[in-house]
Every structure is written in structure tokens, then in C-alpha cells.
Design goal:
Blueprint: E1 5-9, H1 16-29, E2 36-40, H2 46-53, E3 58-62, H3 79-84, E4 87-92, H4 95-100, H5 105-117, E5 121-126, H6 130-134, H7 138-150, H8 155-160, E6 162-165, H9 179-197, H10 199-204, E7 206-210, H11 218-222, E8 229-232, H12 239-246
Parallel strand pairs: 1-2, 1-8, 2-3, 3-4, 4-5, 5-6, 6-7, 7-8
Helix pairs in contact: 1-2, 1-12, 5-7, 7-9
The structure holds 2-phosphoglycolic acid.
2-phosphoglycolic acid (PGA) binds at residues 9, 166, 171-172, 210-213, 231-235.
Length: 253
């Protein structure tokens, strides 16, 4: 059985003080959740959020990492630095970074290896644009992105990490993939990972859906057999919405 994960991606939102306030609001609401909870906060918020969630079942996550251990990389942060701040999960290859920071599949692979080396759990994002989908490339593209990201990893590494299927057209748009679209895409990812890295690893690896996941669509998505949780942007920024998401099992269908 794969334990569901709900990971909030706060993106570039909340100052350290605002972040601490939101973490305090989320803390009690997360208590009886039946899933793992991760808050991927801006780097400058680690110090204000970590003490609040440290002894709870909520884990600290980062939104990016550099692949090098140290060196002349102005503005970047290494995996060891994240780990020492209490970070346990790190988002890698989010579409906003693929588009705006020019991250390639090769760089995403290096970052994944660096994160694993430091004991972090990568949350690797893959997903197609609307043009890709309309041209019929979705399955080929997400399979390619997944295999490229995991190249060179052991079966044990693959079993522990997380992939987030995030169709770019659904991110921040309010347009959510249908339950079937999300389940089918995640099934494709699991089977290509199984073929390339072993079926045990693919069976254990958690694959999340991301893209306008909200309280009103979470229960349908989470009923799909392939979907192991969510990577949540907008709806992770208010305690009420995020609480509904981490309690997806309580929402009547
Ligand atoms: P969204 O963002 O939930 O606001 O669509 C998801 C993401 O970018 O990870």
C-alpha cells in the first residue's frame, strides 16, 4: 500500500512572518489527516516554519535545489544545506522552472541525484503543455521526462521518490484534468518506470497529481487507483482549503 501524500507548493508567496502564521493555522488541522503532509515553502521561510512543524506529522519541503555540492553558484542552495535546515522533500523540475529558469531533463536528473545523495526525497514534476496534448504527445512526453529524470538511479532510490504529474495547462488555471485523464497519465508513468527501473520500485513509488487540485475536485481524483496524492499550489495557501485537501477521505462523494 502506498501512503498518500499531500504537498503544498507555496511558490513565491508569504514572508517569513506570514508563513509562520499559516503554518500555525495548518498545524492543528493536519492532526487527524490520513496522509503524509509536506509544506514546500520559500527558502527564506525555513527558519520560521520549521520550529512550528518540527514535532508534528508535517514535513518541510523546498521548491528547488542545485545539483552541485558547493561552489561558485550565486543565489543557489545545495541539497546538504536544505537537509541541515530540516528539509525532507524537494520539488525538482517544476514546469515554472523548466520554462522560466530553462531547466532541462539532464539538469533535473543531476538535481534528483544530488537530492537523493543528501537524503532528501525528490518530488519530480513532469507534464505536457496544451499544445503537446492536442498534438497527441502527452504519453510520449511524460514517459520521456520520467525516464530522463531517473536515469542512473537504483531500484531502491526509485521506490522512495515521488513523481508529480502536472499538466501545464492545469497549473494555476482553475482547469483541472479529469479524473480519468489524470489516472491514465499516471498509469503511463508507472508503467514506463516499471519497464525501465523494475516493477517493485514502480509499485512503491508515489505519483501525485498537480494542477488546480481543490476541495471540490480532490475526492474524485483521490478515488483513482493510480493517484497517490496531490501537489497543490493555490489551494495550499489557505488553511481551510488545505485542510479539506489533507482530509480528502472525509469529503462525501
Ligand atoms: P495549482 O499549482 O494547484 O495552483 O494549480 C500546482 C503546482 O504548480 O504545483
Amino acid at each position: 500500500m502506498r501512503k498518500p501524500v499531500m504537498a503544498g507548493n507555496w511558490k513565491m508567496n508569504k514572508t517569513p512572518r506570514e508563513a509562520a502564521a499559516l503554518a500555525k493555522e495548518i498545524l492543528p488541522l493536519a492532526e487527524n489527516a490520513s496522509c503524509e503532509i509536506v509544506l514546500c515553502v520559500p527558502t527564506v521561510n525555513f527558519h520560521s516554519v520549521y520550529p512550528i512543524i518540527q514535532n508534528s506529522k508535517i514535513h518541510l519541503g523546498a521548491q528547488n535545489v542545485h545539483y552541485a555540492q558547493s561552489g561558485a553558484f550565486t543565489g543557489e542552495v545545495s541539497a546538504a544545506m536544505l537537509a541541515e535546515c530540516g528539509v525532507r522533500y524537494v520539488i525538482i523540475g517544476h514546469s515554472e522552472r523548466r520554462n522560466m529558469a530553462g531547466e532541462t531533463d539532464a539538469v533535473i536528473n543531476l538535481k534528483t541525484k544530488a537530492a537523493i545523495e543528501a537524503g532528501l526525497i525528490p518530488i519530480i514534476c513532469v507534464g505536457e503543455t496544451l499544445d503537446d496534448r492536442q498534438a497527441g504527445y502527452t504519453n510520449t512526453l511524460i514517459a520521456y521526462q520520467s525516464v530522463m529524470a531517473l536515469t542512473g538511479l537504483t531500484e531502491t532510490d526509485v521506490a522512495r521518490l515521488i513523481i508529480a504529474y502536472e499538466p501545464v495547462w492545469a497549473i494555476g488555471t482553475g482547469v483541472v484534468a479529469s479524473d480519468e485523464q489524470a489516472n491514465d497519465a499516471i498509469g503511463i508513468i508507472r508503467s514506463v518506470v516499471g519497464k525501465n527501473f523494475g516493477w517493485d520500485a514502480a509499485g512503491q513509488m508515489r505519483i501525485l497529481y498537480g494542477g488546480s487540485m481543490k476541495p471540490d475536485n480532490v475526492s474524485g481524483l483521490m478515488r483513482q487507483p493510480e493517484i497517490d496524492g496531490g501537489l497543490i499550489g493555490g489551494a495550499s495557501l489557505t488553511a481551510a482549503d488545505f485542510s479539506a485537501l489533507v482530509h480528502f477521505g472525509d469529503i462525501p462523494s
